[in-house]
Amino acid sequence: MTKDQELFSLFRRVGSTGLVIFERDGLLMRRRDPSNHLTLGDIDEDFVRMLRRLRELNFRFGFISDQRGMDAWSYGQPGFAALTTVLDELLSIHEAIPDFWMGWNLLPRAGTEAKHPDDHRRVSVVDMILRAIDSYDVDSRNAVFVGNSSSGMQAAKQAKIAAIVYSDWRNDKARETQRLHNTLERMVSLGHRRTA
Protein backbone atom coordinates (compact mmCIF):
# COMPACT_ATOMS: atom_id res chain seq x y z
CA MET A 1 0.00 0.00 0.00
CA THR A 2 1.21 3.49 -0.71
CA LYS A 3 0.01 6.67 0.92
CA ASP A 4 -1.09 9.36 -1.52
CA GLN A 5 -2.38 12.27 0.57
CA GLU A 6 -5.47 10.80 2.23
CA LEU A 7 -5.80 7.97 -0.28
CA PHE A 8 -4.33 4.50 0.20
CA SER A 9 -4.07 2.43 -2.94
CA LEU A 10 -2.63 -0.56 -4.75
CA PHE A 11 -2.65 -0.60 -8.56
CA ARG A 12 -1.62 -3.33 -11.00
CA ARG A 13 -2.42 -4.04 -14.63
CA VAL A 14 -4.19 -7.36 -15.05
CA GLY A 15 -7.18 -6.71 -17.29
CA SER A 16 -7.32 -4.53 -20.39
CA THR A 17 -11.03 -4.10 -21.22
CA GLY A 18 -13.12 -1.29 -19.76
CA LEU A 19 -13.12 -0.52 -16.04
CA VAL A 20 -15.51 -1.72 -13.33
CA ILE A 21 -15.27 0.06 -9.98
CA PHE A 22 -16.91 -1.83 -7.11
CA GLU A 23 -17.72 -0.64 -3.62
CA ARG A 24 -15.97 -3.25 -1.47
CA ASP A 25 -18.15 -3.12 1.63
CA GLY A 26 -21.64 -4.45 1.11
CA LEU A 27 -20.67 -6.20 -2.14
CA LEU A 28 -17.55 -8.33 -1.74
CA MET A 29 -17.87 -8.17 2.05
CA ARG A 30 -20.97 -8.13 4.19
CA ARG A 31 -21.21 -5.10 6.49
CA ARG A 32 -21.01 -6.43 10.04
CA ASP A 33 -22.18 -5.51 13.50
CA PRO A 34 -19.63 -3.36 15.38
CA SER A 35 -18.68 -6.17 17.76
CA ASN A 36 -17.90 -8.72 15.06
CA HIS A 37 -14.68 -9.49 13.19
CA LEU A 38 -14.24 -10.50 9.57
CA THR A 39 -14.60 -14.18 8.79
CA LEU A 40 -14.48 -16.04 5.48
CA GLY A 41 -18.26 -16.35 5.77
CA ASP A 42 -18.44 -12.59 5.21
CA ILE A 43 -17.15 -13.00 1.64
CA ASP A 44 -19.84 -13.56 -0.99
CA GLU A 45 -18.82 -16.70 -2.93
CA ASP A 46 -21.25 -16.02 -5.81
CA PHE A 47 -19.74 -12.56 -6.18
CA VAL A 48 -16.20 -14.03 -6.24
CA ARG A 49 -17.25 -16.46 -9.00
CA MET A 50 -18.60 -13.51 -10.99
CA LEU A 51 -15.27 -11.69 -10.53
CA ARG A 52 -13.46 -14.75 -11.89
CA ARG A 53 -15.67 -14.63 -15.00
CA LEU A 54 -14.86 -10.91 -15.42
CA ARG A 55 -11.16 -11.77 -15.14
CA GLU A 56 -11.59 -14.47 -17.82
CA LEU A 57 -13.13 -11.79 -20.07
CA ASN A 58 -10.07 -9.60 -19.41
CA PHE A 59 -12.11 -6.84 -17.75
CA ARG A 60 -10.30 -4.35 -15.52
CA PHE A 61 -11.89 -4.16 -12.09
CA GLY A 62 -11.13 -3.16 -8.56
CA PHE A 63 -12.52 -2.02 -5.24
CA ILE A 64 -12.91 1.20 -3.31
CA SER A 65 -13.69 1.29 0.40
CA ASP A 66 -13.75 3.37 3.54
CA GLN A 67 -10.72 1.44 4.91
CA ARG A 68 -12.72 -0.77 7.25
CA GLY A 69 -10.22 -3.16 8.76
CA MET A 70 -10.35 -6.69 10.12
CA ASP A 71 -12.78 -5.64 12.78
CA ALA A 72 -15.92 -3.80 11.74
CA TRP A 73 -15.03 -0.51 13.44
CA SER A 74 -11.29 -0.41 12.69
CA TYR A 75 -10.13 2.21 10.22
CA GLY A 76 -6.84 3.59 8.97
CA GLN A 77 -3.93 2.38 6.88
CA PRO A 78 -2.85 -0.62 9.04
CA GLY A 79 -6.35 -2.14 9.14
CA PHE A 80 -6.94 -1.42 5.46
CA ALA A 81 -3.57 -2.92 4.47
CA ALA A 82 -4.12 -6.07 6.55
CA LEU A 83 -7.61 -6.67 5.21
CA THR A 84 -6.60 -5.87 1.63
CA THR A 85 -3.75 -8.37 1.84
CA VAL A 86 -6.13 -11.12 2.99
CA LEU A 87 -8.77 -10.29 0.37
CA ASP A 88 -6.18 -9.95 -2.40
CA GLU A 89 -4.72 -13.38 -1.60
CA LEU A 90 -8.19 -14.93 -1.38
CA LEU A 91 -9.23 -13.51 -4.75
CA SER A 92 -5.89 -14.51 -6.27
CA ILE A 93 -6.45 -18.12 -5.18
CA HIS A 94 -9.86 -17.98 -6.89
CA GLU A 95 -8.29 -16.52 -10.07
CA ALA A 96 -10.16 -13.26 -9.55
CA ILE A 97 -7.32 -10.90 -8.61
CA PRO A 98 -8.37 -7.24 -8.94
CA ASP A 99 -6.49 -4.56 -10.81
CA PHE A 100 -6.73 -2.15 -7.89
CA TRP A 101 -7.74 -1.50 -4.29
CA MET A 102 -8.34 2.02 -2.98
CA GLY A 103 -9.32 3.25 0.44
CA TRP A 104 -10.05 6.79 1.46
CA ASN A 105 -8.98 8.21 4.77
CA LEU A 106 -11.53 9.07 7.41
CA LEU A 107 -10.66 12.46 8.83
CA PRO A 108 -12.02 13.90 12.11
CA ARG A 109 -14.29 16.88 11.65
CA ALA A 110 -12.46 20.18 12.02
CA GLY A 111 -11.99 21.19 15.66
CA THR A 112 -13.25 17.88 17.06
CA GLU A 113 -11.74 14.61 18.14
CA ALA A 114 -13.52 11.61 16.66
CA LYS A 115 -15.03 9.49 19.41
CA HIS A 116 -16.97 7.18 17.11
CA PRO A 117 -16.14 5.83 13.63
CA ASP A 118 -19.20 7.53 12.13
CA ASP A 119 -17.94 10.92 13.35
CA HIS A 120 -15.77 11.49 10.29
CA ARG A 121 -15.71 13.40 7.03
CA ARG A 122 -14.86 11.28 3.99
CA VAL A 123 -12.53 12.21 1.20
CA SER A 124 -14.60 12.42 -1.98
CA VAL A 125 -15.69 9.14 -3.54
CA VAL A 126 -15.80 11.05 -6.83
CA ASP A 127 -12.05 11.66 -6.50
CA MET A 128 -11.44 7.93 -6.10
CA ILE A 129 -13.56 7.08 -9.15
CA LEU A 130 -11.74 9.70 -11.22
CA ARG A 131 -8.37 8.46 -9.93
CA ALA A 132 -9.16 4.91 -11.10
CA ILE A 133 -10.29 6.15 -14.53
CA ASP A 134 -7.18 8.31 -14.86
CA SER A 135 -4.79 5.58 -13.65
CA TYR A 136 -5.93 3.23 -16.42
CA ASP A 137 -6.49 5.97 -19.01
CA VAL A 138 -10.01 4.67 -19.67
CA ASP A 139 -12.66 6.62 -21.53
CA SER A 140 -15.49 7.36 -19.07
CA ARG A 141 -17.91 5.63 -21.46
CA ASN A 142 -15.99 2.39 -20.75
CA ALA A 143 -16.23 2.78 -16.96
CA VAL A 144 -19.01 1.42 -14.74
CA PHE A 145 -19.52 1.90 -11.01
CA VAL A 146 -21.23 -0.86 -9.01
CA GLY A 147 -22.41 -0.14 -5.50
CA ASN A 148 -25.23 -0.24 -3.03
CA SER A 149 -24.89 3.11 -1.28
CA SER A 150 -26.63 6.33 -2.23
CA SER A 151 -23.33 8.23 -1.83
CA GLY A 152 -21.66 5.86 -4.31
CA MET A 153 -24.45 6.31 -6.85
CA GLN A 154 -24.28 10.09 -6.48
CA ALA A 155 -20.49 10.00 -6.89
CA ALA A 156 -20.78 7.98 -10.12
CA LYS A 157 -23.28 10.51 -11.45
CA GLN A 158 -20.91 13.38 -10.60
CA ALA A 159 -18.02 11.52 -12.26
CA LYS A 160 -20.25 11.08 -15.33
CA ILE A 161 -19.98 7.30 -15.53
CA ALA A 162 -22.64 4.59 -15.69
CA ALA A 163 -23.75 3.11 -12.37
CA ILE A 164 -25.46 -0.09 -11.31
CA VAL A 165 -27.20 -0.47 -7.97
CA TYR A 166 -26.50 -3.96 -6.69
CA SER A 167 -28.00 -5.45 -3.56
CA ASP A 168 -25.93 -8.60 -3.12
CA TRP A 169 -27.33 -10.22 0.01
CA ARG A 170 -30.80 -11.05 -1.32
CA ASN A 171 -32.33 -14.51 -1.12
CA ASP A 172 -31.34 -15.51 -4.65
CA LYS A 173 -27.74 -14.27 -4.73
CA ALA A 174 -26.73 -16.54 -7.62
CA ARG A 175 -29.41 -15.05 -9.89
CA GLU A 176 -28.51 -11.49 -8.84
CA THR A 177 -24.80 -11.98 -9.49
CA GLN A 178 -25.55 -13.55 -12.89
CA ARG A 179 -27.76 -10.56 -13.72
CA LEU A 180 -24.95 -8.21 -12.65
CA HIS A 181 -22.38 -10.10 -14.73
CA ASN A 182 -24.62 -9.97 -17.83
CA THR A 183 -25.29 -6.26 -17.33
CA LEU A 184 -21.59 -5.45 -16.89
CA GLU A 185 -20.60 -7.46 -19.94
CA ARG A 186 -23.22 -5.69 -22.04
CA MET A 187 -22.38 -2.18 -20.74
CA VAL A 188 -18.59 -2.48 -21.01
CA SER A 189 -18.79 -4.11 -24.46
CA LEU A 190 -21.16 -1.38 -25.67
CA GLY A 191 -18.89 1.36 -24.29
CA HIS A 192 -15.87 -0.27 -25.92
CA ARG A 193 -17.60 -0.37 -29.31
CA ARG A 194 -18.61 3.31 -29.00
CA THR A 195 -15.01 4.40 -28.35
CA ALA A 196 -13.21 2.05 -30.74
Structural summary, described in words:
This protein is of the alpha/beta class and 196 residues long. It is 37% helix and 21% strand. The protein contains five helices and nine strands, in the order E-E-E-H-E-H-E-E-E-H-E-H-E-H. The chain has a seven-stranded mixed β-sheet with strand order 1-2-5-4-3-8-9, with helices on both faces. It has a two-stranded antiparallel sheet with strand order 6-7. Helix 2 links the parallel strand 4 (59-65) and strand 5. Helix 1 (45-56) packs parallel to helix 5 (173-195). The termini are far apart. 35% of the residues are buried. Mean pLDDT is 77; it is low at 1-6 and 106-122.
Binned strand content: 15-25%
Strand count, sense and barrel status of the largest sheet are: 7 strands, mixed
Low-confidence spans: 1-6, 106-122
- Provide the gyration radius in Å: 16 Å
H/E element order: EEEHEHEEEHEHEH
End-to-end Cα distance, whole Å, is 34 Å
Residue-averaged pLDDT, rounded?
77
- Principal-axis shape equals globular
Tell me the total number of β-strands.
9
